[in-house]
Amino acid sequence: MASPVNQASPAAVQPVPQVVVTVAPPTAPAPQFERTLASYFSTLDPIVRPVSDVFSTLSDVRKSLALPNPGAVEKLQNEVKLVQTTNFMFEGARADLTKALNMNPVFQVTHAFTLSPEGKNAYNFGAVLGDETKFWQAGLDDLGNVTMRVNQRWTPSQISKVQAQLAPAGGQSFVQLEHDYQGRDFSANIKALNPSPINFTGIYVGNYLQSLTSRFAVGAEAVYQRPSPEIEEAALGYVAKLVGEKNDWIATAQWQPQGVAQLTYWQKLSEQVDVAGDLQVISVPQRRDAQASFAARYAFRMATLRAQIDSLGKLTSVYEARFSPAFAFTFAGEIDHLQGTSKFGLGVSIESASENIDPMAPPAAPPSVPL
């Protein structure tokens, strides 16, 4: 009987390895434009990188100093102007009737009547609408002049402004475009008055104010005037601002290349009293002159008294008393001792709201409109 045939076990069978070959498609060469652009930037890198590193280092240093924002150049003398009587003085009789239709957003209309000593009457109708991001104001007087103002806040630090006036035949019309930027430790502003995109005529102004320390800031203001394509003029002025350690006093200086310098000083004496001084010096070949003024403001609970005297012998006083949240009385007077003249003004202001006002309740807080 034949012996059985020996069969190999399944574990003894070795699998045959398979080799997979992947062929990558050929890489297309980079276009000539990309190679040229890359070569161009690689050439500029030794020049641009050191400059970029310097600006980055300066930015880090400024952040570590935590310098405050110095405020706008156009508001450099804001505290002094609030004490002086210049912007509050008027002559004749005046009545302002204001109707507040809404508080937030602010929406109100105003009727202003003025009677000058010459017997000329004037009337102006105005409307205001504003909230946290926008401020719209428009006015129309009895002569046909239409004025408008639009402020738009894009971000907490950037505000665009437009002001315009449309006057009838023989009047003066203008338009002003402006953009304001408030940085962490600086402020910048550019504006154009009656700009023309055709021949680039108009007045162009740019200013910059930088904080150097927590109390001191310096800046510059450039003015370019081109009333016609054949005439152009440029000037550069400088400003400085020094603030007290407790923010209880502010000193400013401003110089224009035409030979005009201005020094101001404001100090808060108490919660109700603050004073301000102003000195203007004009030094040009045809004229050398100086004028100084001193003003004080007393803020009571329901009244405000402003008084001012200057080196020309003028004594001015403006008194405003608010008998209720809806009614105010204003008296203004000026006596010129050197010229022997005087001016007087009497004004009333009446405000009404859509809802009844409680005289004992505090007034509602309006929104912070972009001014």
TrEMBL record:
Q: Which InterPro entries match?
A: Porin_dom_sf (IPR023614), Porin_Euk/Tom40 (IPR027246), Tom40 (IPR037930)
GO molecular function annotations of the record: protein transmembrane transporter activity
Which Gene3D superfamilies does the record associate with it?
Answer: Porin
**GO BP:** protein import into mitochondrial matrix
Indicate the family of this protein: Belongs to the Tom40 family.
Q: Which PANTHER family match?
A: MITOCHONDRIAL IMPORT RECEPTOR SUBUNIT TOM40
User: How is this protein named in the record?
Assistant: Translocase of outer mitochondrial membrane
Species of provenance: Malassezia cuniculi
